Description:
Elements: H1 4-12, E1 17-22, E2 27-32, E3 37-45, E4 48-57, H2 63-73, E5 80-83, E6 89-97, H3 103-127
Antiparallel strand pairs: 1-2, 2-3, 3-4, 4-6, 5-6
Amino acid sequence: MANFSTVREFMQHMDVTIVREDRDECVLVVDAPQNGIRNLVVLCDQPILIMHQTVVPVSEPSVEFYARILQLNAQLVHGAFVLDADAGSINWRHTLQLENLDFNELDAAVNALSLAMAEFAFEFVSSSRPIE
């Protein structure tokens, strides 16, 4: 079964930089700005791995904006765009089972986030203000 150390090792072999970690809380924060990854939170919360990244703040919510986010979800390979609890931002979120997690599965999920950011960044910026 994968654990925090395994996930950390996998991340070190990817094209990301570990910018923060908390072993006690089993949390990593990684960046790969060249791939659209900024402050991707990776949490080992047995029995799952949770990945979460803020994509864009919501400045002027509208039914059309939220409908478009749902349409974009249909095009994602892994994960989904979600509204945070305060309705203040759109986030990308994905979960994986830790029990049989392997490098290829985790790498594919991170690459899917990169692809989504490259493919949809213009829509997010034109629909709201960019994240800082």
